[in-house]
Write a structure and sequence with these properties.
By secondary structure, this protein is an alpha/beta fold. It is 47% helix and 15% strand. It has 17 helices and 12 strands. The protein has a 7-stranded mixed sheet with strand order 9-8-7-6-10-11-12, with helices on both faces. The protein has a 5-stranded mixed sheet with strand order 1-2-4-3-5. The model has no long low-confidence stretch (mean pLDDT 98). The protein binds NADPH dihydro-nicotinamide-adenine-dinucleotide phosphate (NDP) and 2-oxoglutaric acid (AKG). The site of 2-oxoglutaric acid has 13 residues, from strand 3, helix 6 and helix 15. NADPH dihydro-nicotinamide-adenine-dinucleotide phosphate binds next to helix 10.
């Protein structure tokens, strides 16, 4: 360890671990970010003096609540709901809701923390927040999902609003859940405040391209990264993990840009299809029938299903992890590099472990961190809020063009900041530095808040 600033940052991190025990994902996200910020604090001593990193790492507000609901057999269940309103320096808290049995405070805090920097990178007026519940939507009937969402919103409604906190979807929360959540919000408040939640249906305040935005945005980011090495997506063999919202629309745009996605997955296993994933089948299975990825074999006998295997064993040039956190271990990263992978673009939040990131950086392959590469979703949510505020609705082409420009802007900002602070080509450092500077400057201007 060298500088005084480095020692200070290490001390701050140790204190954060002590104050937030047992929240390993939150610690991981904070460490990755703080490690990038040493040169910023050296260049701008006022950030250190004003305790900007200490302030940014402490959520403004954390709400934890009971979510009781009744199943179809009239049995009562109790889940735990969360909303962490992390930082509102740039605008209302903005970030999705995750319904998954693994959810606990540490996961919501890591996601909320990442969201602060991601939202800042978009250049749009949005703060960072995240929420969710330890509820497992798998195997539940529509009526059970509705009752759960209504109960969840019966507490959440008092904390949200178009000028305070604007939730959206994440794992386990798609168009169906957003409908039930917004319906209950409208019912309790007696206000058609469409800008309070994003990812809505197109007939009731939603925006074209929001459904596609995170996946399309990730593919646009990959295109921009490859461009810096005078390369393109055309003809590239790609692997996209997951088969949910982000994965499906990543595959769609990669195919449009001339790449070929040969594998995708769900939490049970992965499908390998040398001819390229058949997106129409995938959409039918996952968006309409809510089935398992294994059923892809019913449509394509020449595909292969690998139960419980690692999708990162499949050789590819471009890897787009789009399922969940920590899905690429150091070992998987090493295998990807050995198999000829030249670029990794994170559609999911924090899908690569610290050991995996080290492998990619040492191999000098292109690596886009989730907070930059998957920012297209939240950016388009903000475009949805703009349309709601002006009682307008934009065309697909207009909205997609705006998304593409935002993603190019984020790419260029990360690239330039990495160079300016002495780590050319390091998109992770560039993203952390650019996001932090924007938020810290706003907080500085507003005094000790
Ligand atoms: N939706 C959005 O707009 C945005 C999402 N993200 C991030 O993208 C990622 C995917 O989100 P999204 O597509 O919306 O979620 P979905 O719920 O639509 O899909 C999630 C996919 O990931 C798989 N998955 C989830 N958890 C695990 C796990 N523990 N192990 C293996 N596979 C898993 C799911 O499989 P199964 O069905 O078997 O559980 C499913 O295929 C998340 O990290 C999310 O935070 C980031 C920015 C915006
Ligand atoms: O659209 C949004 O507001 C949030 C999307 C999200 O949860 C994310 O970026 O991780």
């Amino acid at each position: 360890m060298n500088s005084v600033i480095e020692k200070k940052v290490t001390g701050v991190f140790d204190e954060i671990v002590q104050r937030n025990p047992g929240e390993s994902e939150f610690h991981q996200a904070v460490k990755e970010t703080l490690d990038s910020l040493v040169p910023v604090l050296e260049k701008y001593p006022e950030f250190a003096h004003q305790k900007m990193i200490e302030r940014i790492c402490e959520p403004e507000r954390q709400i934890i609540f009971r979510v009781p609901w009744t199943d179809d057999k009239n049995q009562v269940h109790i889940n735990r709901g969360f909303r962490v309103e992390f930082n509102s320096a740039l605008g209302p808290y903005k970030g999705g809701l995750r319904f998954h049995p693994s959810v606990y405070l540490g996961i919501i805090k890591f996601l909320g923390f990442e969201q602060i920097f991601k939202n800042a990178l978009t250049g749009l007026p949005i703060g960072g927040g995240k929420g969710g519940a330890d509820f497992n939507p798998k195997g539940k009937s529509d009526a059970e999902i509705m009752r759960f969402c209504q109960s969840f919103m019966t507490e959440l409604y008092r904390h949200i609003g178009e000028h305070t906190d604007v939730p959206a979807g994440d794992i386990g929360v798609g168009g169906r859940e957003i409908g039930y959540l917004f319906g209950q919000y409208k019912r309790i408040t007696n206000r058609y405040e469409a800008g309070t939640i994003t990812g809505k249906g197109l007939d009731w305040g939603g925006s074209l391209v929001r459904r596609e935005a995170t996946g399309y945005g990730s593919a646009f980011f990959a295109r921009e990264m490859l461009r810096t090495r005078k390369d393109t997506i055309e003809g590239k063999r790609c692997v996209v993990s997951g088969s949910g919202n982000v994965s499906i629309y990543t595959i769609e745009k990669i195919h449009e840009l001339g790449g070929k996605v040969v594998a995708c997955s769900d939490s049970n296993g992965y499908i390998f299809h040398e001819k390229g994933i058949d997106l129409a089948v995938l959409k039918q299975l996952k968006e309409v029938e809510r089935k398992r990825i294994k059923d892809y074999l019913l449509f394509h006998k020449d595909a292969r299903y690998v139960e419980k295997g690692s999708i990162w064993d499949v050789p590819c040039q471009l890897a787009l992890p789009s399922a969940t956190q920590n899905e690429i271990s150091g070992k998987s990263a090493a295998l990807l590099v050995k198999n000829g992978c030249i670029a990794v673009c994170e559609g999911a939040n924090m899908p690569t472990t610290p050991a995996g990131i080290r492998v990619f950086q040492e191999a000098n392959i292109l690596f886009a961190p989730g907070k930059a590469a998957n920012a297209g979703g939240v950016a388009t949510s903000t475009l949805e809020m703009m349309q709601n505020a002006s009682r307008d609705s934009w065309t697909f082409e207009y909205t997609e063009d705006k998304l593409a420009k935002i993603m190019t802007g984020i790419h260029n900002l990360c690239y330039e900041k990495a160079e300016e602070f002495g780590s050319p080509g390091n998109y992770m450092k560039g993203a952390n530095i650019a996001g932090f500077i924007r938020v810290a400057n706003a907080m500085l201007a507003m005094g000790v808040i």
